[in-house]
Amino acid sequence: MTSPTTPSDSGHTSAPAPEGHAPRRRSWFKPRLDWLLVFVPIAIVLRFVPAFDNPTALFVVSCIAIIPLAGWMGRATEHLAEHLGQGVGGLLNATFGNAAELIIALFALSKGLTGVVKASITGSIIGNILLVLGLSFLAGGLKFRRQEFNRVAAGVSATALTLAAIALIIPSVFHQAAALVPVAAGGWTPEKEQGLSLAIAVVLFLTYALTLVFSLVTHRELFGAEDGKDVAREAGEELTRMEAEQHGHGHKPWSVGKAAGVLVGATAFVALISEFLVGAIESARESLGLTEVFVGVIVVAIIGNAAEHSSAILLAVRNKMDISIGIAVGSSLQIALFVAPVLLFASYLFGQPMNLEFTIPEVVAVVASIIIVEQIASDGESNWIEGLQLLSVYAVLAILFYFLPDVHPAAGAHTPAH
Amino acid sequence: MTSPTTPSDSGHTSAPAPEGHAPRRRSWFKPRLDWLLVFVPIAIVLRFVPAFDNPTALFVVSCIAIIPLAGWMGRATEHLAEHLGQGVGGLLNATFGNAAELIIALFALSKGLTGVVKASITGSIIGNILLVLGLSFLAGGLKFRRQEFNRVAAGVSATALTLAAIALIIPSVFHQAAALVPVAAGGWTPEKEQGLSLAIAVVLFLTYALTLVFSLVTHRELFGAEDGKDVAREAGEELTRMEAEQHGHGHKPWSVGKAAGVLVGATAFVALISEFLVGAIESARESLGLTEVFVGVIVVAIIGNAAEHSSAILLAVRNKMDISIGIAVGSSLQIALFVAPVLLFASYLFGQPMNLEFTIPEVVAVVASIIIVEQIASDGESNWIEGLQLLSVYAVLAILFYFLPDVHPAAGAHTPAH
Amino acid sequence: MTSPTTPSDSGHTSAPAPEGHAPRRRSWFKPRLDWLLVFVPIAIVLRFVPAFDNPTALFVVSCIAIIPLAGWMGRATEHLAEHLGQGVGGLLNATFGNAAELIIALFALSKGLTGVVKASITGSIIGNILLVLGLSFLAGGLKFRRQEFNRVAAGVSATALTLAAIALIIPSVFHQAAALVPVAAGGWTPEKEQGLSLAIAVVLFLTYALTLVFSLVTHRELFGAEDGKDVAREAGEELTRMEAEQHGHGHKPWSVGKAAGVLVGATAFVALISEFLVGAIESARESLGLTEVFVGVIVVAIIGNAAEHSSAILLAVRNKMDISIGIAVGSSLQIALFVAPVLLFASYLFGQPMNLEFTIPEVVAVVASIIIVEQIASDGESNWIEGLQLLSVYAVLAILFYFLPDVHPAAGAHTPAH
Questions:
Q1: CA-CA distance, A12 to A126, in Å (whole number)?
Q2: How far is residue A347's CA from residue A351's CA, in Å, rounded to a whole number?
Q3: Do A163 and C372 touch (CB under 8 A)?
Q4: A403 and B178: CB-CB below 8 Å?
Q5: N or C: which end of chain B has fewer CB within 10 A?
Q6: Positive or negative, the Cα torsion across A298, A304, A310, A315?
Q7: How far apart are CA A389 and CA B91, in angstroms?
């Protein structure tokens, strides 16, 4: 570590006092998402009672209903992870962290909505590192003048993100270059794009597996905000503690049975509502006047990550910057290195192979986000203007996707040369 | 601050001795620009005496005449700022810092020369961070082996520049992507480009306003090269002191009346000469064999920034790196986040709305400049080779713009699809 | 230096013990390349005995035969450099470091294979910073938990690489933009591309010369891994020491005569075998089903750099990270700033002027490599996952070039507009 264990590391000295007794402030950010569960039965009624048949309403209600369900999935995963010990628990956390998004994307994939799936991958990456991290830095920065974090851990994640960005650019570069050559001379064909994408997905997946070995096994202490604990575990404990404070009772871990039961139940409901949501996308987005890419990049991505959003912001306000950044950047990383390859592999099961070719605006959005987050994370400290800068970039990209018509990579100027 | 208050911060220890008694060296860089004022009456004669009608001569003479006038505007602004107190003074400095460029651009805008305006925005951004900073690092590095600066302040500015670069890429990305879709299906139209540009300009303008709040209000001390002074104020004092040394009398701030009078007078002359300059651009550039984009990117940008150029270099030779970098990077920042949006807003008043779509070479030039300056600034120290590397990038970009024919974004391959 | 002379700088404290008495481990990496010299006579037989006429076999055998010859050229250069003193010796090392690649490229150029030449420039740049550095970080990281290096020296080199990347992007940007304009209005022509490339090559060459002045003259101590020695010299000594250990006798520098003789002899053989290799490329790559660009980017680049590869990895395992990085990054730098311009200048002698326009995939590969290496080098320390990340990027780019058909920049969509 270059910063030699700075004493104010993560602000353990300054944080407790202001945060322990500031209920007025904290209530602002309290993740009181549970009352949103009322939208689950509403969604079921809208879907199955013919009198209420309204795809737009179903879409909106399903979007809202998924938010608290994803939160329960996350909590159950963390409680289960505590019982499974550090190694397996960390793996569980890392694998199920984006389960809600994965489920929504799988349903979209089964309906052949590959444009929405790719857009939601893009949106999850930029949403986590611009919107979540931006709001965390801003909220934390309004309370604390300056917040510090472990820049070595942030750096390893940022580099992995750069690797992901490069991998996600390549299929577009291939298409653009190979389309200049006639097919007879080896030019672009959908099969080659597919083969290229599959090979890249394998590299990403292996890199993800080895990154887990690095962060959970060989260099675990780098990611430990405090001695002997990894970020995922501390995040779980911290969130449980916050939850306990809210409900007015002490911290009590769930039993294995309760955790597993809640996980299965919440996952089942997420799957059900995701099916509603995806089924209603097409008619809803038309009546709302939104493009497929805007729905994927902005709407679906925000819904699927809402639970992480509130956790990361809450932790930033408590000056637990390492965990906050770990959630935001780690989630982006997992989407790019784990969820994207898994979706590509899964697309073969549905008989509709998806490639990894993103549109140019999507590629630019991902690259731009990663460059600016790398820059902001490299100094190991944050303040409110850095949060605002991240949010400004998010706003600029949201404007782009709002104005952008649906572009299908296979259409237009990039068709194979004859 | 990550660098734990390095004692040699800005080299206050090493600088005084060599610089206090080295008049031979300093005379090299002395900003003896005032004699250039003789070109002001020459420009007026060339413009109004029919016998001397020669657009090329008028263009060249006007270019030269603006340099000392811009210098006087800057000095008057600084003296006025001293009377107005830190907050308002800083705001004045930040707002009027690029007034000469703004005036030239407004005249060009009123004549519909949007290509020149955009090229001069590009040129000011890359000119300040490559040419000015490069010459500063080189000149300072020839005198001092190694110069240090506050890398946190440099980092905040570099991040803001990255944000600006992303914002200026987006309209081109939008055009390229949306042009693949037929207009009937939501494809590219000039109106959409305009709407997108306007929305982005609003985001940039708001970000600039909040960045001023950050640097002038909440985190003022970050930008203070010495305790309790902001960079703008210290820059003013330092420059006044240098000026006083040259003229052989003590440091004496101007009265409010004198400062305001000089400001009004210099601004009026800048406006007059700008009108000459812009009026002569078209015929002059043809007879000189230069393209519109080369005139905008290289010529107009160098003229408009000449005063900052000499100040920044002078300060680097005196080892006041924080102020030198503050001028160069701050000026780029202001062009991108303040001048560009203001010009877009103003273009509506002229009835010829300008968008923010830059050509690909302009976008590449801005992005490349920002990436290399970010890299060079991130270690908090400079030497002569870093200055030379910045100048090499400037040379490469100047070569590009010299060879490049005038490309109009709306023409060529990027027209809307049918 | 920002990192305040860390005591474990380059691990001089921890390295000696484990490496001095670990023959089992070291034997793994022993550069026993000399037995490959047996392929030299085999290549000669394949080339000149009509009965064995087989271009594919000749290509493969020549590739292998060049590896040990390049190693002998390198060793002779180092021994000669020791006799010539620091300044001239450093210059010799810096100039002849990539002599084998230069010779292969000159032969390819003389046959008009400019596509292969450009591809091998790309491949050498990305091969050195992704493959060599990646393997070094991985091999070093498997032995040492964490390795440190001088991040200031690494930063100067990374910045020079960024400059090179910008310079190599510009000719493609020029082509794309100028091709939109009719030739009559100043649009793209091969002559303009040539003029632009020549001007850029001159800037790169001058920058390289001044970078040598910086690293060998004015700021030599920055690059000294230990007091008073430059990296090239220490690399030479370290490698000689390793060699001596292998052969069981003490370190004994060669005489000037022996060094010069070996240099001339090895160079002559490299030239001979390069001629075979280049002559066989066309028929060999067809029978192997490889594209011109894959052969250039992956095959020729790995062959030409094999000697550096083994040295850099060996040094990383001995925890001499500064020298290891110096070899890998320095070699990339030299290819971009020295070899590429020299090849362009030389192409005029062959009457077939080459320009510096690379294909988009080549440009993306170089830019991506430089961005990720910059990021990984900026913290001044390495571990195995960073090595793996570099190798993953290399794998992704190798996949791209494997799938990519041969794209000729002058063909396809980028022809001049009419």
A1: 29
A2: 6
A3: yes
A4: yes
A5: C
A6: negative
A7: 20
Q: Which residues contact C278 (CB under 8 A, 6 or more apart)?
A: C104, C107, C108, C111, C113, C116
- The closest alpha carbon to B367, from B163, B203, B120, belongs to B163
Nearest to C115 by CA among C402, C346, C398, C355: C355
Strand ranges in A44-202 using DSSP code E only, listed in sequence order: 147-148
Q: Which two tokens stand for residue A313?
A: 């912001």
Residue B198, token pair as written in the block: 């306007």
Task: State the amino acid at position A143 in one-letter form.
Answer: K
Burial of C417 (0-12, 13-18, 19+ CB in 10 A): middle
Give the best residue of B142, B362, B379 to mutate against chain C (max C CB count within 10 A). Answer: B379
Number of other residues whose CB lies within 10 A of the CB of residue C260? 15
DSSP B248-273: TS---PPPHHHHHHHHHHHHHHHHHH
Both tokens assigned to C1: 């230096």
Alpha-carbon span C259 to C91, nearest angstrom? 16
**The token pair that represents C326 in the structure block:** 């110096």
Is the Cβ pair A177, C361 closer than 8 Å?
yes
What chains are in contact with A, requiring at least 3 Cβ pairs below 8 Å? B, C
Q: How many Å lie between the alpha carbon of A397 and the closest alpha carbon of chain B?
A: 8
Residues of chain A with pLDDT under 50: 1-30, 225-229, 249-250, 409-418
Residue B53 CB-half CA count within 13 A: 4
Place of tokens 């306007």: B198
8 Å CB contact between A79 and A254: yes
Select from B167, B402, B381, B209 the least CA-distant residue to B288: B402
Packing angle of the helix pair A99-110, A340-349 (nearest 10 deg)? 30
Helix (H, G, I), strand (E, B) or coil at B388: helix
Q: Could you give the CA distance from residue C288 to residue C291 in angstroms, rounded to a whole number?
A: 9
Question: Phi and psi (nearest 5°) for A192?
Answer: -65, -40
Summarize pLDDT for A264-322 with one digit per residue, the tens: 898 888 888 888 888 888 888 888 888 888 888 887 778 777 777 777 888 888 888 88
* Token pair of B379 as six digits: 């270690």
DSSP A244-304: HHHHTS---PPPHHHHHHHHHHHHHHHHHHHHHHHHHHHHHHHHHT--HHHIIIIIIHHHH
Beta bridge partners of A148: A381
C-alpha to C-alpha distance for A172 and A397, rounded to whole angstroms:
19
Any chains having at least 3 CB pairs less than 8 A from chain C are A, B
What pLDDT, on a 0 to 100 scale, did the predictor assign at position C233? 58
**In chain C, how long is the greatest CA-to-CA distance?**
72
d(CA A55, CA B229): 60
Q: Which residues contact C32 (CB under 8 A, 6 or more apart)?
A: C246
Inter-chain touch B389–C163, beta carbons under 8 Å? yes
| Beta-carbon count within 10 A of C54 CB | 15
Count other Cβ atoms within 10 Å, centred on residue B36: 16
B257/B80 Cα distance (integer angstroms): 9
Quick: pLDDT tens for B385-398.
889 999 999 999 99
Burial of A119 (0-12, 13-18, 19+ CB in 10 A): buried
The pTM score is: 0.82
Phi, psi of C327 (to 5 degrees): -65, -50
Q: Please check whether residue A278 is in contact with residue A296, taking contact to mean a CB–CB distance below 8 angstroms.
A: no
**Is B181 within 8 Å of A393 when comparing Cβ atoms?**
no
Predicted ipTM > 0.85: no
Paired tokens of C173: 């940007």
Euclidean distance between CA atoms B26 and B41, whole angstroms: 30
Query: What are A302-318's pLDDT values in tens digits?
Result: 877 777 777 788 888 88
Separation CA A313–CA A138 (nearest Å)? 9
